[in-house]
C-alpha cells in the first residue's frame, strides 16, 4: 500500500516507506490512470456535490473495490439496467404469452377433436343399428367399410401437397412411407407377411363388434369395447415387458368386474351373454392388434400409418373379398341384388368409420393422445343419451353400475407412468405452502398481540 492510500485509509500504518521518485512516478502514472479512471469523468463526478460527498465517504471508509465516481457509475449502470429491464421483461412476457397461447390453442383444438371423435364413433355405432334393420349382413358391412381405408394415403398426400413447400411426387412419398416395412421398402413377401395378420385382426375386430350390436344396445357394446385398454396393458406387461403399475392392475380388475356384471344383468342366458362375449372378443382382438403393431412396426409417423391402413384396405379388397361371396352363396348373408342394397346407409357408415380412423391417427400427432382416448370413452354416455331419447331403452341398475365401473377403470388406465411421483411432489409442495402460510399467520398474530400489549402498557413474555 502506498503512502497516499495509507493516509486515506485511516492512518493505521506505523511508518511510511519512501520509494525512489522515478520508479514511483513511472509506476504511479499507470496505476493512477487505472485506479482513478478518466480525469474528465472524475471532474464530472465532482461537479455534483452529493456525488462528491458519497465518493469521499466511500474512500474514507475503505470500501472494497472503490474508485472515484463509483456511486455515479453505479447510478448510470442502474439506470441502464433499468432501461434494459423493461425490454427484457417485455420479451420474456411475450415469450411466455406466446407459449401459453399455443398451449391454450392446442388444448382447445384437442377438446374440439375429442367431440369430433366421440361424435363420429357414436354416429357409426348408431348407424350400424339402423342399417341392420333393413340389411343384417355384418361381415359385408365390415368388408365394405374396410375397403374405404384405401383412401387414407391419397388423403394424406393431398394434405402434404397443401401444407408443405417441398412437395414430393406420389411415388417418392409412397417409397418414403414404405420404410415402415423395412429399409428395402415394401416387397410382395413383406406385403403378405406384415399386412396379412394385421388385416385379419382388423376384420375380426370390426366383425365381432358388429355382431355384438345385433345382440346388445349401443351403450353396452361401446362400454365393453372400452375394456380393450385394460387388455392392451396386460398384453404389453406380459409380452412387451412394460413397466408394472399397480393402479393399472386395479383398472384391469375393474374392467373384468364390469364384464361379469354386464353378463349377469340378464342372468347369464339368452342373447345377452353372447353379445357380451362378442364385444369382449372384439376388444381382445383390438388389443392384440395394437400390441403386435407396437412390437413389429414400432412407432410410426402419420404418413406411415396412412400408408399402412391403405395397404390393409388393398389386402382386404384382394384377399378377403371371397368371404362375402361364400357367405352370400351359402345364404348366411343374403343381400339380394346390388340395386336393393341400402347404399345411403352403407356409404354413410363407411364414411363415418373413415372419419373416425382419420381423427384418431391425426389427433395423436396434432394434440395430446390422452384426449383421443377420452373421446372414445365419451362415446359411452353419447350412445346412452341416444338410446334413452330415441330408442327408449331402460337400463337396469346392474348395467349402469357395470358401465360406470368399466369407464372408471378406463380413466385409471389413462394415468401416466409417473403419476405417483408427480402426485407425491404436488402433495409435498402443497403441504410446504400450507405450513408457510400457517407460519406467517402465527407471526402476524404474535405481532398483533405484542402491539396490543404495548398499547395497554403491558409486556407479553412468550412461554417456552
Describe what this molecule looks like in 3D.
The protein has 464 residues and is mainly alpha-helical. The protein starts with a helix and ends in a 9-residue tail after the last helix. The longest helix has 63 residues. It is built from 20 helices and no strands. It has a domain of 309 residues. InterPro entries: EamA_dom (IPR000620), EmrE-like (IPR037185), Solute_c_fam_35_mem_F3/F4 (IPR026505). This is Solute carrier family 35 member F4. Keywords: Membrane, Transmembrane, Transmembrane helix. One of its GO terms (cellular component) is membrane.
Q: Which features characterize this protein?
A:
464 residues, mainly alpha, disordered N terminus, membrane, Solute carrier family 35 member F4, Solute_c_fam_35_mem_F3/F4
Q: Which descriptor suits the 3D outline?
A: globular
Poorly predicted parts: 1-48, 61-86, 452-464
Beta-strand share of residues: under 5%
**Rg:** 38 Å
Helix content: over 70%
Structural class: mainly alpha
Determine the N-to-C terminus distance: 53 Å
Major β-sheet profile: none
Average pLDDT, to the nearest integer? Answer: 77
Number of DSSP strands? 0
Number of helices: 20
Order of helix and strand elements from N to C terminus: HHHHHHHHHHHHHHHHHHHH
Amino acid at each position: 500500500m502506498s503512502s497516499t492510500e495509507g493516509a486515506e485509509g485511516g492512518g493505521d500504518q506505523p511508518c511510511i516507506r519512501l520509494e525512489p521518485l522515478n520508479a514511483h512516478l513511472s509506476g504511479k502514472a499507470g496505476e493512477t490512470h487505472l485506479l482513478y479512471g478518466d480525469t474528465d469523468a472524475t471532474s464530472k463526478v465532482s461537479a455534483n456535490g452529493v456525488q462528491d460527498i458519497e465518493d469521499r465517504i466511500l474512500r474514507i471508509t475503505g470500501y472494497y473495490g472503490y474508485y472515484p465516481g463509483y456511486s455515479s457509475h453505479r447510478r448510470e449502470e442502474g439506470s441502464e439496467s433499468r432501461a434494459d429491464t423493461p425490454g427484457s421483461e417485455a420479451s420474456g412476457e411475450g415469450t411466455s404469452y406466446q407459449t401459453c397461447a399455443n398451449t391454450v390453442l392446442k388444448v382447445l383444438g384437442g377438446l374440439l377433436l375429442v367431440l369430433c371423435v366421440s361424435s363420429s364413433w357414436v354416429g357409426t355405432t348408431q348407424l350400424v343399428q339402423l342399417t341392420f334393420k333393413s340389411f343384417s349382413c355384418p361381415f359385408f358391412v365390415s368388408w365394405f367399410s374396410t375397403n374405404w381405408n384405401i383412401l387414407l394415403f391419397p388423403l394424406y398426400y393431398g394434405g402434404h401437397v397443401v401444407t408443405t413447400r417441398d412437395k414430393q411426387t406420389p411415388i417418392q412419398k409412397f417409397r418414403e412411407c414404405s420404410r415402415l416395412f423395412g429399409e428395402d421398402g415394401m416387397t410382395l413377401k413383406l406385403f403378405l407377411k406384415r399386412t396379412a395378420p394385421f388385416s385379419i385382426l382388423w376384420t375380426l375386430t370390426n366383425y365381432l363388434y358388429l355382431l355384438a350390436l345385433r345382440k346388445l344396445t349401443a351403450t353396452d357394446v361401446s362400454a365393453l369395447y372400452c375394456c380393450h385398454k385394460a387388455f392392451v396393458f396386460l398384453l404389453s406387461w406380459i409380452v412387451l415387458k412394460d413397466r408394472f403399475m399397480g393402479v393399472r392392475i386395479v383398472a384391469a380388475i375393474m374392467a373384468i368386474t364390469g364384464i361379469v356384471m354386464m353378463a349377469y344383468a340378464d342372468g347369464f342366458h339368452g342373447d345377452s351373454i353372447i353379445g357380451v362375449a362378442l364385444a369382449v372378443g372384439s376388444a381382445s382382438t383390438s388389443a392384440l392388434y395394437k400390441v403386435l403393431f407396437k412390437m413389429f412396426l414400432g412407432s410410426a409417423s402419420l404418413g406411415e400409418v396412412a400408408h399402412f391402413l391403405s395397404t390393409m384396405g388393398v389386402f382386404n379388397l384382394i384377399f378377403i373379398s371371397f368371404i362375402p361371396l361364400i357367405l352370400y352363396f351359402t345364404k348366411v348373408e343374403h343381400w339380394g341384388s346390388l340395386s336393393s342394397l341400402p347404399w345411403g346407409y352403407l356409404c354413410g357408415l363407411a364414411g363415418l368409420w373413415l372419419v373416425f380412423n382419420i381423427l384418431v391417427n391425426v389427433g395423436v400427432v396434432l394434440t395430446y393422445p390422452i384426449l383421443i382416448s377420452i373421446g372414445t370413452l365419451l362415446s359411452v354416455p353419447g350412445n346412452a343419451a341416444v338410446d334413452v331419447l330415441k330408442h327408449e331403452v331402460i337400463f337396469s341398475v346392474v348395467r349402469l353400475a357395470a358401465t360406470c365401473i368399466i369407464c372408471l377403470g378406463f380413466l385409471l388406465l389413462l394415468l401416466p407412468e409417473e403419476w405417483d411421483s408427480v402426485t407425491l411432489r404436488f402433495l409435498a409442495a402443497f403441504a410446504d405452502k400450507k405450513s408457510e402460510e400457517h407460519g406467517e399467520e402465527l407471526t402476524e398474530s404474535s405481532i398483533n398481540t405484542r402491539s396490543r400489549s404495548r398499547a395497554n402498557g403491558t409486556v407479553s413474555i412468550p412461554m417456552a
